[in-house]
Design goal:
With 477 residues, the chain is α+β, with helices and mostly antiparallel strands. Helices cover 26% and strands 22% of the residues. The protein has helices at residues 56-75, 131-146, 165-176, 185-195, 250-256, 263-280, 311-315, 322-325, 375-392, 423-427, 434-442; strands at residues 2-9, 12-19, 37-45, 52-54, 90-96, 99-104, 125-129, 231-234, 246-247, 291-298, 303-308, 340-347, 353-357, 403-409, 415-420, 456-462, 468-472. α1 packs across α2 (131-146) and α2 packs across α4. It starts with a strand and ends in a 5-residue tail after the last strand.
């Protein structure tokens, strides 16, 4: 099984691709398998169109050079680990106080990077980074080391260097101030400084309003630390109106709470997830590949986290409404040990939204709630619903396939709930009177169903010929 890990910062993204060694993985069936065999590494740096790429040797050398040079830069004490061009693929050179040259000795330089060597056989890649870019790279490496499920046997051996902490801190901030463009320089500088692993230094505590696709931790994290390369929302102790979701590991959350697997509950939540995402996905053009995500959803329908399943989804999350749909603890009670359901969400290139349970349905779902079962009452409500829909359905259909819906009414024949049963019913629901009828009663065509009283359920079919069919509900097919 191909596995991806992504550690992303504003100016740097590390993407690791590999496999899980099934002979070593004791829990191979875990939701987040261990990446133990590294196949490919891509390092994306802001300002450069092409990533640095390589295998395990390149990645290990990059990690050693980045960490060694960061120590040297902050301490002003030379660290040979950052400049070992005899045995390392990657080395750093300081150009000036705000320019740091990253040199990669490789067989060829990708298009978009400069080469200053006359050696045609193995020209090195040379990239100049400013201080903020450098420490975004440091932080991406730091996130990798905090991730216990990725190359767990790889450790970093750094030799402490002597420095005066206070003086180095002030010098670093002065160096970083002119380096940033479009970011909060002092905040980035302060975070980066605290991430370097000097002796007896404690990792910074995450702030409630920090959001990224990965967690920030020390290069030598405490044993209880958990990596979080997946976006998920968690509560803060005292939420306010301006509180934003904090980032935690969706998979770690799923490992600590129970999973909702009841087919009937999943069916109801499936509708709620669709009803949240469908109207919020406004720009549906420009997708070159389907964007596929795994969502974590609480029992009340709140989206508590999401993970990109394919590479395109990693890069294209900004083209989806998902970041804006994560639940905000300021607007909802905190999530603690609530059960979570998982869904597969696809934003496809045709502009069609697809939502389905991550593991499918274990059995045929049932409609949730009390039901009207008296055959005489059901027969009368069947005719009443037919008349109400027939009177309000007019115009010439543009669809070419049957639109199928489940429609529920109360004892008085008032519509209480409806849901599309096939994709064409989702696509052409505006050509039916159902949303207008529902909106007239509840003020929204995606309001929660009225399940506080027994309901009679029917299948309603709108045919391209203009014919309408209403029959008693026989269950999901």
């Amino acid at each position: 099984m191909n596995i991806q890990r992504k550690y992303s910062l504003p100016n740097c993204t590390l993407l690791l691709e590999g496999l899980s060694d099934v002979t070593r993985a004791a829990h191979f069936q875990e939701m987040r398998p261990e990446l133990s065999i590294l196949v490919n590494v891509e390092c994306y740096l802001s300002g450069y169109n092409q990533p640095l790429t390589g295998g395990r040797e390149f990645f290990e050398s990059l990690v050693r050079a980045v960490s060694g040079y960061a120590q040297e830069f902050l301490s002003s004490v030379p660290n040979p680990q950052a400049h070992n061009q005899e045995s390392e693929l990657v080395e750093f050179q300081k150009v000036d106080s705000n320019r740091h040259r990253l040199i990669v000795h490789s067989e060829g330089a990708p298009e978009g990077f400069e080469s200053h060597s006359n050696n045609s056989k193995r020209p090195p890649i040379e990239i100049d980074l400013n201080t903020v870019q450098l420490f975004d790279l440091v932080e991406a490496v730091d996130q990798f080391f905090a991730d216990s499920q990725t190359l767990p046997e790889l450790s970093l051996e750094l030799q402490p260097v002597t420095r005066r902490y206070g003086g180095a801190s002030q010098a670093f901030i002065r160096q970083a101030v002119p380096a940033a463009v479009g970011v909060s320089t002092l905040a980035v500088a302060a975070i980066a400084f605290n991430l370097i692993p000097p002796p007896q230094m404690h990792p910074p505590q995450p702030k409630p309003d920090e959001q990224t696709s990965s967690t920030t931790k020390s290069l030598t994290p405490p044993a209880s630390a958990a990596a979080t390369p997946i976006v998920a929302a968690t509560s803060t102790p005292t939420p306010t109106a301006s509180t934003k979701p904090a980032v935690k590991d969706l998979e770690a959350l799923l490992n600590t709470v129970s999973e909702i697997t009841d087919p009937s509950q999943l069916r109801a939540l499936n509708r709620q997830v669709y009803n949240q995402i469908h109207p919020a996905w406004t720009n549906r053009s420009g997708l070159q590949q389907d964007l596929i995500y795994r969502l974590g959803v609480a029992a009340d329908g709140a989206i508590v986290g999401y993970k990109a399943v394919n590479k395109e989804a990693n890069l294209g999350v900004g083209q989806t409404p998902l970041p804006n749909l994560l639940y905000n603890p300021a607007n909802r009670a905190p999530i603690s040990n609530e059960p979570v359901a998982q869904f597969r969400v696809v934003f496809n290139t045709k502009g069609v939204l697809e939502v389905s349970p991550w593991r499918g349905y274990a059995s045929t779902p049932e409609v949730v709630g009390a039901k009207i079962t008296d055959s005489n009452i059901v027969k009368g409500l069947n005719q009443k619903l037919y008349n109400a829909v027939r009177q309000t359905w007019s115009g010439t259909p543009t669809f070419t396939r049957d639109l199928k819906y489940r429609v529920a009414v109360n004892k008085d024949g008032v519509i209480a709930d409806y849901e599309p049963l096939n994709q064409v019913a989702f696509d052409y629901f505006r050509e039916t009177p159902l949303p207008k009828m529902f909106n007239a009663i509840y003020g929204s065509n995606v309001a929660a169903p009225n399940d506080k009283e027994p309901l009679a359920h029917f299948q309603v079919i709108f045919k391209p010929s203009g014919k309408l069919e209403v029959t008693p509900w026989q269950g999901y097919q």
